[in-house]
Amino acid sequence: xxxxxxxxxxxxxxxxxxxxxxxxxxxxxxxxxxxxxxxxxxxxxxxxxxxxxxxxxxxxxxxxxxxxxxxxxxxxxxxxxxxxxxxxxxxxxxxxxxxxxxxxxxxxxxxxxxxxxxxxxxxxxxxxxxxxxxxxxxxxxxxxxxxx
Length: 148
Hints:
The chain is mainly alpha-helical. The chain has eight helices and no strands. The radius of gyration is 24 Å and the shape is elongated.
């Protein structure tokens, strides 16, 4: 087997391309500071955690502590990145999940409230009505045809 004199050159180019791609994934976009870039990544990790654990008791302080951030700072960054506050995001997520359960299960409103992470069914009802303009029971009736 003869040594291809271009082999080392190709390897060098591929390695440089690899390093460039690696660096681009870790360098903030133009106009973005390293601090805000890292903060946005942390917020995205926090959102992924929230999306996967919304049924559990989650508080702003719990999430901030989990990601080693000051709660006030986390709250401000969260709203800046997502356009809505932490609590509103969490409630919207929970209500969206509850809408599906209302239409696809025979579970009671209280069971659905607890399964979606609400600590009491009255607060769930108020939050649901605020988002949808109708109560969970009315939603179930209006959307009709419960599928089991």
